[in-house]
Amino acid sequence: MLNVLEAQCNWVEKKGVTLVRDSGMPFYIVAQYFSEIDLNFLGEKHRTAWGSILVVEPNLPHSYTCTEDLLHHWIHLEGDVAELLARYGLRPNHLYHLQNAEDISAILRQIAMIYHDKGLFREDYLNLKVQELFISMAQQFNLQSRISNMDYGVIQRLRDLRFRILEHPEYHWTIAEMASQMYLSESYFYPLYRQCFGTTPNRDLIAIRIERARTNLLCGCSVSAAAEKSGYASVYHFIRQFKKVTGMTPREYKIQSQAGLTLRPNDD
Question: Is pLDDT at 123 greater than 50 in this prediction?
Answer without folding.
Answer: yes
